[in-house]
């Protein structure tokens, strides 16, 4: 992509900020489900006579369904984004996410409709997964393709920052709601508020539709002779991506498993572990996740900017090493019961993850030519999401139940970091500071 002139940089920054806002609210919708899956759904959407461990596994399984759907969403919206434009695909994903999240907030419980409750929950979680599978590629490419060539890492990190901002929004809503009503009222209707306010995502989607320009939109006076070339090139971007760039897609997925696994264990499983196994206060755990997420926002932007200066590969590799090492400190610090250590455990983990996640949007975009970039980047991202994040809370829960020790979870996290480290090494020369047209 050509260098953007000084006169267009401010619009590019505006696009990056708008993309970050869309990502924050979309991820809020996705993460508020994760918080509810850890604290609320085991009690409301499954039989009351189930052991808590079984209900928790079942609840985390519905959480994982969203990750299973994400590659499908990546394919659907990737094709749409490569053939009809990034903005159109992003707005469609946002509208679908907003509607499905509101509907979750209106669901009846198991006590009211029996087995239909978890079935409807799973169906709507699947739709959420489809939407978020398409959202990331659209938001990231809107920001990166509108950025100066020397600042793609920084502009891409704005979209990455939407993830911790979404976590903060989700946990803030839960904390405010739980503090405002009694525990009984919270379990009956208070938890629904967080899902219903996601109607804001629909509003942001409409703002993007009307206020944000498509990057490198073709001119209306473009020569007609170019039309056949464009049609052929965009006929099946998904097929072209899989056929000609399958190695990049798989290795991109491999680079993502570490930060995705460590992230979801830190913000979802750690909450359940601290509350049920250690007996810590729920608000302390949610507060620790919020503090870590707030610190992660500038951390992501700093790491994205560093990758512009020193290259994506080295920053990413450092992140994989330190994240794997810190995995052995997280759970002993939570076990201590000290609020300071609990907050530090999660905050440092999220900062180390930022070394990988900050440069990731630019790294993925630079792996693929423009005609298949939405499809290729989305597939790589979502393949890593399924392997790394979707089953992480379930695997962590099962490991702790089997070995009765958090050490097994730390080894699991370190193994995922090793996979990402190796994937970055194997990408080798494919990691470049430029984007093919």
Average pLDDT reading: 83
Task: Give the total of beta strands.
Answer: 0
Tell me the major beta sheet.
none
- What is the name of the CATH topology? Growth Hormone, Chain: A
What share of the residues lie within helices? over 70%
Strand content: under 5%
- The CA-CA distance between the termini, in Å, is 6 Å
Q: How would you describe this protein?
A:
This protein is mainly α and 437 residues long. It has one domain: Growth Hormone, Chain: A, CATH 1.20.1250. Helix content is 80%, strand content 0%. The protein has helices at 9-39, 41-44, 52-84, 86-104, 110-113, 116-144, 152-160, 162-180, 183-190, 192-196, 199-211, 227-233, 237-244, 246-278, 282-310, 312-335, 339-357, 360-365, 373-390, 392-403, 407-427. Helix 1 packs parallel to helix 7, helix 3 (52-84) packs antiparallel against helix 4 (86-104) and helix 14 (246-278) packs parallel to helix 16 (312-335). The radius of gyration is 21 Å and the shape is globular. The chain starts with 8 loop residues before the first helix and ends in a 10-residue tail after the last helix.
């Amino acid at each position: 992509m050509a260098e953007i002139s000084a006169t267009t940089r401010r619009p590019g920054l505006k696009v990056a900020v708008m993309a970050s806002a869309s990502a924050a609210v979309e991820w809020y919708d996705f993460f508020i489900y994760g918080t509810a899956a850890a604290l609320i759904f085991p009690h409301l959407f499954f039989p009351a006579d189930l052991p808590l461990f079984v209900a928790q596994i079942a609840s985390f399984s519905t959480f994982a369904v969203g990750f299973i759907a994400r590659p499908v969403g990546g394919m659907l919206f990737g094709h749409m984004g490569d053939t009809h434009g990034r903005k159109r695909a992003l707005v469609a994903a946002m509208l679908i996410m907003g509607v499905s999240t509101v509907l979750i907030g209106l669901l009846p419980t198991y006590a009211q409709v029996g087995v239909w409750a978890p079935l409807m929950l799973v169906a709507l979680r699947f739709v959420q997964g489809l939407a978020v599978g398409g959202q990331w590629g659209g938001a990231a490419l809107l920001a990166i393709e509108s950025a100066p060539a020397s600042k793609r890492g920084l502009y891409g990190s704005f979209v990455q920052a939407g993830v911790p901002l979404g976590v903060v929004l989700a946990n803030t809503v839960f904390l405010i709601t739980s503090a405002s009503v009694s525990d009984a009222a919270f379990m009956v209707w208070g938890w629904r508020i967080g899902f219903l306010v996601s109607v804001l995502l629909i509003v942001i989607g409409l703002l993007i539709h009307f206020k944000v320009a498509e990057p490198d939109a073709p001119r209306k006076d473009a020569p007609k002779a170019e039309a056949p070339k464009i049609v052929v090139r965009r006929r099946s971007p998904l097929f072209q991506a899989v056929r000609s760039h399958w190695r990049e897609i798989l290795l991109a997925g491999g680079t993502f498993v570490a930060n995705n696994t460590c992230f979801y264990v830190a913000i979802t499983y750690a909450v359940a572990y601290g509350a049920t196994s250690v007996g810590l206060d729920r608000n302390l755990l949610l507060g620790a996740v919020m503090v870590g997420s707030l610190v992660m926002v500038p951390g992501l932007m700093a790491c994205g900017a560093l990758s512009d200066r020193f290259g994506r590969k080295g920053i990413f590799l450092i992140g994989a090493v330190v994240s794997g090492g810190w995995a052995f400190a997280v759970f002993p610090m939570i076990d201590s019961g000290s609020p300071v250590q609990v907050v530090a455990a999660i905050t440092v983990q999220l900062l180390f993850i930022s070394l990988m996640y900050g440069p990731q949007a630019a790294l993925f975009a630079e792996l693929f030519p423009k005609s298949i970039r939405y499809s290729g980047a989305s597939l790589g991202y979502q393949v890593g999401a399924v392997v790394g994040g979707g089953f992480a809370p379930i695997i962590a829960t099962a490991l702790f139940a089997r070995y009765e020790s958090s050490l097994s979870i730390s080894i699991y996290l370190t193994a995922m970091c090793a996979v990402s480290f190796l994937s970055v090494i194997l990408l080798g020369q494919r990691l470049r500071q430029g984007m093919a047209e």
